[in-house]
Amino acid sequence: MSIEISREKCVACGACAVVCPGTLIWVDAAAYIKTPDNCWGCASCVKECPRGAIRLYLGADAGGRGGKLSARRDGALTHWSVEKPDGKTVEITVDSRESNAY
Ligand code: SF4
Ligand code: SF4
Q1: What are phi and psi of 8, to 5 degrees?
Q2: Would you state the pLDDT for residue 63?
Q3: Which ligand is nearest to the CA of 34?
Q4: Mean pLDDT for the chain?
């Protein structure tokens, strides 16, 4: 697994680099992944990016070849989008107030 980072959307805030458990992301004028082969697809960086600049490539078991996962934050809500290889998109919304309620 690995990610792609949009240099056009990235504002170099560094939030993705802070949360990456493998210290794989570096930031200069924009963020970039230094060793993509070491990414294990936790999606922390995708969720944390305030600009929706990161997309995670999904394996065949989670979206199929060419599928990509992105996220958009809206307060307590995170809107996850899976872009399928056939062009269709599935969106799942998670409310952190509910998921952290127990
Ligand atoms: S998906 Fe996880 S391991 Fe991969 S770059 Fe993002 S934070 Fe790091
Ligand atoms: S969190 Fe998003 S905007 Fe911030 S450095 Fe990473 S990719 Fe760029």
Answers
A1: -70, -35
A2: 59
A3: 1
A4: 92
- Determine the Cα–Cα distance for residues 54 and 48; give it in Å rounded to an integer: 9
CATH topology of domain 3-99: Alpha-Beta Plaits (3.30.70)
pTM for the full predicted model: 0.91
Interstrand relation of 89-95 and 77-83 (parallel, antiparallel or unpaired)? antiparallel
Q: Which residues line ligand 2 (CB under 6 A)?
A: 5, 10-16, 27, 31, 48-49, 51, 53-54
Amino acid at 55: R
Burial string for 47-63 (b: 16+ CB within 10 Å, else e) reads bbbebebbbbbbeeeeb
Q: Where are the domains of the chain?
A: 3-99
Nearest CA residue ID for atom 2, ligand 1: 42
